[in-house]
Specification:
Blueprint: E1 7-12, E2 35-37, E3 54-58, H1 65-73, E4 79-84, H2 88-93, E5 97-102, E6 107-109, E7 116-119, E8 130-131, H3 135-142, E9 145-149, H4 153-160, E10 165-169
Parallel strand pairs: 4-9
Antiparallel strand pairs: 1-5, 2-7, 3-4, 3-10, 5-8, 6-7
Protein name: TnsA endonuclease N terminal
InterPro entries: DUF6886
Amino acid sequence: MRPEPGQVLHFSEDPTITRFVPHVAATAQQPDAYVWAVDQDRAPDYWFPRQCPRAMAWVLPTTSRADRDRVVGAGCGERVHAIEYGWLEAMQRVRLFAYRLPADRFQLFGTPEPHALVAVEPVTPLGPPEPVGDLLRCHAEAGIQLRVLNNLWSFWDVVANSSVGFSGIRLRNARPRS
């Protein structure tokens, strides 16, 4: 599930949203109200149940061969996502929807590297939400490894101290460090 030209996506488990109104998320690190969306490159970051903790890593032009082999795996593609076993059933059962939104209403957000798009005015979807479908299949078809681990923290520590690109979402929901 990726946006078409001129579109960005918002993923939700709620298929009844008819208008997105800027709000301050409960986990926000900034005081401003936004409508959040993602582009083509960041869409796979949201092929998960909303509350699912996930650690993601991808090869950058500056990634060392050693880090690529250690984090992603030799011959294993360009990107890896990791979740915990406790979230696998939710990953298989969740009904996730993608809302297509007009890209011209959004601006890049995030420093030092933008990782999302935000709008400061209400946004109406371009049509009804689309079911994303089987999230494991989405990963497979995109060539993204999906690792299922007992605990995310060892993987996260390696990723965060390497030369790969990385992102962690909802890590506060991960099992405690062991």
